[in-house]
Structures are given as C-alpha cells and as structure tokens.
Design brief:
about 60% helix; two-stranded antiparallel sheet; single chain; mainly alpha
C-alpha cells in the first residue's frame, strides 16, 4: 500500500532466499511487516540487507486480525499493511544472527530433556502395563538399575523395549556432554559466575536467562522482565469486573522452565536467605506450585537487577 493506504501491488511470495531476493532486490526501499514466526528473523536480516525497513511484529497482539469474523491470508496481509502504515503494531526486537546462534545450544538441550522425559515415561508405561513398576530414579540411574535387574525381568519384554533403553542411554550421554560445556562456560564467564551466587540458580539457569534477555538495559523494571518471560498472571478487567488467571506463558519457554526449576531448588535448599524465607512462607500460604511461579518471577527480576547494576547477591537484604 502507498501513503494513501491504497493497494499498489498484491501477490504471494515464497519464503526462500532466492524468491525473496528476486522480488525485493528490484523494489525501491519500503517498510516491510513480518509476523513473528520461526523464519521471521533470517527473513528480516535478508530484507534489511536489500535496503528495506523491516518490522517484525507480534501477531498475538494484533487484535484487529485475531478478532476478525472473516479471516484469511489476503485480508490479514491488507490489515497488517494498514496497521503498519499507522505504526499501530507491537514490534518484536530482532536479535542478531550471533545472538540467535548462542541460544541454539540451550534450545537443543531443552529438546533433548523433553525427549528423554518422553522415553522414560514410555518405558515405565510399557512395564506398568504388564504389572511391573520400575523404581523411582533419575534417567541415568534408571538405565543402570535396568541393566542390573534385567535377569529378573521377562526376556521378551526386555527385547521389545531395547530400542527405548538404547535411545535413553544415548540421550543421557549427549546431555552429559552438553551440561559439561555449559558448566565450563559458566565457570569462565564473570557475569555468569556472579549470577550463580543466587540460591537455587545454577549454570543452566543463568546461561538460558542471559541468552534470552541479551541486553538488560532494554527493560525498565524487574516486573517488565517477568512479563517478557510470561511469568505474570493473566488479567481481565472491564468496568467493575476483575479476573486474574494463571501466568501468561508468553515468552521464551526455556527461560521460564529454567527459572521455575531454580525456584523449586531454592525451596528445597538448606540456605537461610531472606528470599528463601519469603518463598517458604508463600508456599505454606498458597501452595508449592503457585509459590514456584512467584519465586521464578522474583528470581528473574533479581538476576536482571544484578546484571544491570553489576551488583552481587546479598542474602541479608529483604526479599
């Protein structure tokens, strides 16, 4: 569309480097709106290279599209173009290629952890269906226990589940190697070492958090960090009606999961900081699950403040 909001040209473009170059390299500089998807950032890099002003926007915050009674791609593109002309779209920060590559190891690790959990559950489910309950143990310990008890288990069932066990053992080895790399990097980085002084926070949590936030100065407050990671409660307010729900889960899943695990670890640790005391009192009042979400949100704000202000954790300070 032009400055008068009239349609100048309309068509489909394949999201490949070759086709994007052939369409946009010959065009004069224009503002291009790209909805945030898995392919949005490399597309933005390419179009910027070709001289265009690229804006990556959050489709979840484009109510004019989501609330439409008639919705299809052609109409969506027209609405996005009109909203882009008026600067009414919520932009997403475009990370550099280096920042995206640095985040990949933690994404791969998260995928392996989730795959391992599915394998363990499948293995337990198969044996439980035959009346055999496998002992509670970590995935690494479970493989060792299974090998020790193989002689007392049905031979045909062991042979049938051998692929699951082999896959589980291979994933354990890959995760062990991945964790060693993360621990070494966290040990050699001054920022990551300082952030790990917070109770319950380890190398995986700080590595994921730093890779997600990238620059602490783009946030004005700790609450903004919690909202960015989807750790604030949903809120519906209209007139005299106010309803709060669960957390929004709008943001990086790996960082949210890591902070929640750190919050759980903090509740179980033997320390006696003001933060732990507050967390335990909250867990006794509202339950462990809700308390972990609240502690995770506070940990996100605390790590952000330590990073931005270059300060160390002080256990004596009020929560």
């Amino acid at each position: 569309v032009d400055e008068s909001k009239d349609i100048v040209r309309q068509g489909s473009v394949r999201q490949t480097q070759e086709h994007l170059r052939s369409v946009f390299s010959s065009s004069s500089a224009m503002r291009v709106i790209v909805e945030a998807t898995t392919q949005a950032f490399w597309t933005a890099d390419l179009l910027r290279e070709l001289g265009h002003d690229v804006r990556v926007v959050d489709p979840n915050r484009t109510k004019a599209i989501g609330a439409a009674l008639i919705k299809h791609d052609k109409l969506d593109a027209h609405i996005v173009a009109l909203l882009g002309c008026a600067d009414l779209l919520a932009e997403v920060r475009i990370p550099s290629r280096q920042e995206r590559i640095e985040r990949v190891p933690m994404v791969c690790r998260d995928t392996m952890v989730r795959s391992r959990t599915r394998l363990v559950n499948a293995l337990r489910g198969v044996f439980a269906s035959e009346g055999i309950i496998l002992p509670t143990a970590s995935p690494v310990r479970l493989v060792a226990l299974f090998e020790q008890a193989r002689a007392g288990l049905p031979q045909d069932l062991c042979e049938a589940t051998a692929p699951l066990l082999q896959s589980l053992a291979a994933l354990n080895l890959c995760l062990q190697t991945s964790d060693e790399v993360v621990r070494d990097n966290a040990k050699n980085d001054p920022l990551l070492r300082r952030l790990q002084t917070v109770p319950g926070v380890g190398p995986i949590t700080v590595t994921t958090f730093v890779a997600t936030i990238v620059d602490p100065h783009r946030f004005d407050s700790g609450r903004a960090v919690g909202a960015y990671l989807g750790l604030v409660p949903r809120l519906y307010q209209s007139g005299n009606t106010t309803r709060r729900g669960g957390i929004t889960k709008h943001g990086n899943r790996q960082a949210r999961w890591a902070l929640t695990m750190a919050a759980s670890s903090l509740l179980l640790s033997n320390g006696d900081s003001a933060l732990q005391q507050w967390g335990r009192q909250l867990a006794a009042r509202v339950g462990r699950k809700k308390a972990c979400c609240a502690i995770a949100r506070r940990l996100a704000a605390l790590l952000w403040a330590m990073w931005k202000n270059e300060t160390a954790f002080d256990a004596r300070l009020p929560a």
